[in-house]
């Protein structure tokens, strides 16, 4: 059995749930908020010294952290990870793009809008974060204008990694209006077998998001 | 033949050179500065729409971007990438840690110190970047206090990924004085077969670094 430590509305955590559902693996979900220090208690730091979620724990106590590394491990031997080394490297390339050029802008803008006070000084960062978010989306739109998926010719873990925060970009004030190929790709993903949607933010976060945009 | 497009003093680019040297693969290096727009010309954007280096190009024109994805591709079938899926996932976990929790602080502090004017407004970010750099180093120190390498029981691509900017952390004003296990690990890497050191910054960058710290 795999135990997932995660915060339900986090895209990084949802990636893991989505793939586990789609490959049909049993798992147990342990909810840990990442906005109130719950991921940095002594017990949690003993499991993941970087103090973040998601991470997974096996029955023998072994731990694996970093959402995209977890996706790679779960996907080994399934159709979600290409066998061909070049295609596998392309999938990883998009996953590193996601963590370096996409998530730090789109996910952080969303977090600031929904999970920080309306007068947080971090909100001064939003214009820059939104500008960089659109740069990442433009790179994705260009790829999706010529390809159905990010991983070779079928849906896979690079799509899951990029789906997680793209599908809720509007929570951070980043509109997908000018990205028709991205919107079509999101719709295709929602039709894949075993798909589960991102959980909605709770009422407090939803109210902050509504006030922010 | 592999063509590497890279900026010599960039740690992300040096990763690729170091592994190519250590596995003994032939390659051609095309120098492209990343601080003057050379990576964002129309010709370069046609190859890598994300406008960054490093990326590699094969003789048939295929391109692979993102330093750690390139490492993974080059390392396939060599001792630098574990075969065991769990160990391979652990290597990837450290590589995603590097790109999300390490490089955006240690490499960016170094870039600001060496490659922006001494009166750049970006220098106001340095205290925060240095604080986060030390958080990443503390996670590495904890691991290296109990393990010789980041990839199972031998030197591999996770070590190369983390080596690149750790070995020049002091350029950004981030001292390794309090991390003896990290310093021992850097020394072990410098003794591995085929090792090539990070190129020194040019005179202009060296002068800015000296003024910054």
Automatic annotation (TrEMBL), chains A, B:
Q: Which domain of life is it from?
A: Bacteria
Check the record and name the PROSITE patterns matching this protein: GST_CTER (PS50405), GST_NTER (PS50404)
Segments forming domain GST N-terminal:
1-82
| InterPro entries assigned | Glutathione-S-Trfase_C-like (IPR010987), Glutathione-S-Trfase_C_sf (IPR036282), Glutathione_S-Trfase (IPR040079), Glutathione_S-Trfase_N (IPR004045), GST_C (IPR004046), Thioredoxin-like_sf (IPR036249)
Q: A Pfam family matched by this chain, by name?
A: GST_C
Q: Does the keyword Transferase apply?
A: yes
User: Which top EC class is named for this enzyme in its record?
Assistant: transferase
| Database matches in Gene3D superfamilies | 1.20.1050.10, Glutaredoxin
One GO MF term: glutathione transferase activity
> EC number(s) in its UniProt entry?
2.5.1.18
Q: Where is the GST C-terminal domain?
A: 84-208
Which keywords label this protein?
Transferase
Protein name as it appears in the record = Glutathione S-transferase
Which source organism does the UniProt entry give? Agrilutibacter niabensis
């Amino acid at each position: 059995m795999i135990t997932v430590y995660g915060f339900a509305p986090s895209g990084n955590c949802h990636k893991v749930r989505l793939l586990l559902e789609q490959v049909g693996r049993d798992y147990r979900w342990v909810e840990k908020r990442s906005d109130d220090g719950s991921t940095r208690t002594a017990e949690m730091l003993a499991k993941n010294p970087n103090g973040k979620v998601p991470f997974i724990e096996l029955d023998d106590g072994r731990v694996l952290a970093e959402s995209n590394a977890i996706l790679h491990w779960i996907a080994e031997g399934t159709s979600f990870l290409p066998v061909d080394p070049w295609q596998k490297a392309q999938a990883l390339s998009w996953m590193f793009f996601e963590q370096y050029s996409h998530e730090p802008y789109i996910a952080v803008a969303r977090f600031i809008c929904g999970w920080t006070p309306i007068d947080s000084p971090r909100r001064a960062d939003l214009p820059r974060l939104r500008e960089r978010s659109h740069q990442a989306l433009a790179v994705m739109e260009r790829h999706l204008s010529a390809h159905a998926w990010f991983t070779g010719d079928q849906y896979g873990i690079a799509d899951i990694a990029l789906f997680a925060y793209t599908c809720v970009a509007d929570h951070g004030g980043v509109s997908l209006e000018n990205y028709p190929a991205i919107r079509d790709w999101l719709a295709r993903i929602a039709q894949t077998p075993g798909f589960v949607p991102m959980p909605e933010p709770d009422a407090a976060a939803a109210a902050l998001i509504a006030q922010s945009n």
